[in-house]
Amino acid sequence: xxxxxxxxxxxxxxxxxxxxxxxxxxxxxxxxxxxxxxxxxxxxxxxxxxxxxxxxxxxxxxxxxxxxxxxxxxxxxxxxxxxxxxxxxxxxxxxxxxxxxxxxxxxxxxxxxxxxxxxxxxxxxxxxxxxxxxxxxxxxxxxxxxxxxxxxxxxxxxxxxxxxxxxxxxxxxxxxxxxxxxxxxxxxxxxxxxxxxxxxxxxxxxxxxxxxxxxxxxxxxxxxxxxxxxxxxxxxxxxxxxxxxxxxxxxxxxxxxxxxxxxxxxxxxxxxxxxxxxxxxxxxxxxxxxxxxxxxxxxxx
Length: 301
What we know:
Strand content: 5-15%
Structural class: alpha/beta
CATH class: Alpha Beta
CATH superfamily: Aldolase class I
Distance between the termini: 46 Å
Strand order of the largest sheet: 1-8-7-6-5-4-3-2
Largest sheet: 8 strands, parallel
Helix content: 40-55%
Number of helices: 12
Number of strands: 8
CATH architecture: Alpha-Beta Barrel
Number of domains: 1
Shape: globular
Oligomer: single chain
Radius of gyration: 18 Å
């Protein structure tokens, strides 16, 4: 398999996982959010990733979410679900669960917490590739996972049969662009922080974007379409707002995942609510500052 084995492309938002008052997965809110995002121009979704608080999800939660993702996207877009775990065996167990649910592909990040060599990361992906029933989108997010997929390592991973795409979420333009150059002829390359540099990424050949901000503002979805169509004045304006939105969500006592859910609630969108511990809801002055910031950007006003 390679990039030509799948048709994954375009803006595919990283969706939140909403929980009800008892802390259980809110399936209805989850599917309603996916439906809204598809209505707004998304070409698919990525569920159960970092935005989806995958580290809190039980096996039953994942089964529910995998099935709900497939049902919500059926006939409308691509369904990719996160299965990454520290061990290859657990990763493959979730990959099989995703296949049973009917997902199109799986998102796999390197084993996290313990610092690994490139050879150890490669060995993990080789084992997962050999056993996965579904094509794989590798996930580079060293700020969360500790372990990074460098451009050189991405080049090695591109030779593994089931790896057909990479979500490059390092937040480092040089790393993103070097990865794009190294693998774009074999892997579909998705820009993670499209809110930061999505327009240049798409302009230079990225196949798509995967970002949390479409949950809050459709402009982050429109950004891909504008850049792809060459509407550069529109794309530049959207990029500027997205950049300010990113800053808003990670300053003055706010962190990105609780702030995303709080913004969704404030704007009246499904799929928000409180995060699961250890994350805490965005409340008090951080929440009020978030509301003021959204209004200043013309979002929801």
